[in-house]
Amino acid sequence: MSDADLHDFPSLFSLKGKVAVVTGGSRGLGLSAASALLQAGASKVFITSRKAKACEEAVAKLNSLPNLQPGAKAISVPADSATIEGIKSLLEQVKKHTDHVDILLANAGATWGEAFDKHSDAAFAKVMDLNVKSVFNTIREFAPLLEKRGTIEDPSRVLITASVAGIGIGTLGKQGTFGYSASKAAVAHLGRNLAIELGPRHVTVNSIAPGWFPTKMSSGLLKMGGGVEAIAKENPLRKLGKPDDIAGIVVFLCSRAGAHVNAETIAIDGGAVWARGELQSKL
Ligand SMILES: NC(=O)c1ccc[n+]([C@@H]2O[C@H](COP(=O)([O-])OP(=O)(O)OC[C@H]3O[C@@H](n4cnc5c(N)ncnc54)[C@H](OP(=O)(O)O)[C@@H]3O)[C@@H](O)[C@H]2O)c1
């Protein structure tokens, strides 16, 4: 085979027949990712979040997409990822429909904004529990299903939604996200450890680190920071993230094209995390 002879290029970005679970899939980045997985050919995408109604509404939207593979479907499996009981219930619900999982998006997360002097033990614990401990528990509980079909050529995939708040400095001051920023740095490093542990079991683990995307979670902080337009102007690309930006990276990492990427944290923020120097140079 010459260097020009790629192996089956037309299928390089295809997710045909893949089975995926998306935590926090009922809205925001998780819903965009789920939509991309289905449109790239996935056969089953399980949507989970705490509210059953929200999961059902998301599944209805996904199942009415015009360009799905025949028989492909999104399935609602509500559960609270913050508790081990919730994660075990999620696993049992998924097992009723499939004996394996190819793709796990550990995306559910929470944030908390409060000044340093008032930032409480409970607030810190809440974000660390959901954003770090629950991600570990979810990956551990799903590992047997992920290992079922993973191979050297096409490993199963875990994607963790971290944040650029865990790479640069997050929000400080009145709405300080101290616990959140620490949780996102922690979960990306957890991902690197799991990538090396699970690689030999044919499961890759990578993290995506979004910058600002307008969603329910970010809306309050975006408003307080001067609004979407003002914050977009500060970005090196002069825009915030949009659903396509999540879709592209998720499909790449979950497809054969991303099969040799492991233990990485990929920022999707237009370069904003490094832009402080650019802004300061204008002062
Ligand atoms: N938007 C941004 O600018 C941005 C930037 C960087 C990173 N992120 C990260 O991206 C991920 C998704 O955030 P988003 O912006 O898409 O927020 P979002 O629109 O508020 O969505 C959060 C999702 O998580 C679910 N969820 C929350 N707590 C849960 C729990 N205990 N168990 C199960 N599901 C739960 C929510 O549904 P229910 O309420 O029904 O549970 C919802 O589906 C998070 O990890 C967040 O930290 C977001």
From TrEMBL:
InterPro entries: NAD(P)-bd_dom_sf (IPR036291), Sc_DH/Rdtase_CS (IPR020904), SDR_fam (IPR002347), Sec_Metab_Biosynth_SDR (IPR052178). PROSITE patterns: ADH_SHORT. Keywords: NADP, Oxidoreductase. Pfam families: adh_short_C2. The keyword Cytoplasm does not apply. It comes from the Eukaryota. SUPFAM superfamilies: NAD(P)-binding Rossmann-fold domains. GO terms for molecular function: oxidoreductase activity. The keyword Chaperone does not apply. Belongs to the short-chain dehydrogenases/reductases (SDR) family. This is Uncharacterized protein. It comes from Coniochaeta pulveracea.
